[in-house]
Design brief:
mainly alpha, 2 helices
Length: 78
């Protein structure tokens, strides 16, 4: 199959545009999901104690994960 240079160029540009759109959607949706998760949006809104409990617990979990990953790196490198 012989492809004309103009046709190949157009196809490549179309593929690159589709990949860029998919990448932006994936990155944006991952960040949005993480923000929604960390905010405690899945807790009942009529119970502020549960909302703040989820926020604090998830925040402490993230801090603990960073601490564990850092200490593992220090063990491996040191």
């Amino acid at each position: 199959m012989v492809v004309e240079p103009d046709e190949a160029s157009k196809r490549a540009q179309r593929d690159l545009a589709r990949l860029a759109a998919d990448r932006d959607t994936l990155g944006t949706s991952a960040i949005a999901r993480m923000a929604k998760h960390m905010s405690g949006a899945d807790a009942p809104s009529d119970d502020p104690v549960e909302v703040w409990g989820k926020r604090i617990g998830r925040g402490l979990g993230a801090v603990f994960f960073v601490f564990l990953a850092g200490s593992l790196l220090m063990k491996l490198l040191g």
